[in-house]
Fold this protein.
Amino acid sequence: MRHTTHLATDSPMWSYLPKHWPLHNSIKTVTFRQLLTMRSGFPKNVTSGYDSLKAAMAVGATSPQLTFSYQNMNYALMRFLIPHVAGGYSITPMPNNASTQKISEVEQKQAQEYTDAYMNYCQLNVFDKIGIAPNMACKPTDVNPALCYKWAAPNGKGTDWGDMSLTNAERGWNMSALQMATFMNALHHTYKILPKTVADAMRRDTLGYDNANNLIKTGLKYVKKNGGYPASNNAGEVGAWLFGFENEVYVAVLVNSDPKPNTSVSTDVVAAFDACYK
């Protein structure tokens, strides 16, 4: 939204979706703020592919809007919204009165085009601005990529999670912990990604974060974002945590297996920072 002067966080988002998608009436009241704060009322367990998100827009909100309900599809929709908000990206239009076969053909093209546009926008306006890598990807790019495992399974083959490009925006970017921490520093300290007023609003209003304005024992505030995939139904587990403390300390943690029982990475990081800050 930094590239438009007429779009506010509380603007409805529906007009930036693919034009031929059927929309339930409730979709037209959903704002960008509701997507970023997980208060859109969207149905649970919707996957992030093109077809699933299109179908979900026809179903509409299934729970009260403004009620918090974490659903990844809120972020996944950004793959379609950002290219239209930013402008300048070419997306194949759907012909009028298209046949079922033609709709399928065009939507396959659109799925790739929206993915490419979203990734290009992020590269130019995020990754290039902070100088972490010239060609960030939503799939493993190393010859021997890092793997994630189940705890403790020394004979397990592990997984690199494969190519998530077509389901990105809510997941997928292959990043190191250092790159993640660099991103947080650029977002909230050097302001290379967003103006200070917008970055401060993210903290204040919990936009894009799981938690904001948390207090450590010494009274310092911090924001937090967590994500991952559990080992319970995958070949391995990955966990990622981002922390932004009020004194401009930024912490990123990546764990490539499920943790030991009765442990918490988030609790440990905050406790360690609290002890150090004293």
Q: What stands out?
A: The chain has eight helices and four strands. The first strand starts at residue 211 and ends at 215. The helical segments are 32-36, 50-59, 73-76, 78-86, 100-130, 177-188, 196-205, 265-277. The two ends are 38 Å apart (CA to CA).
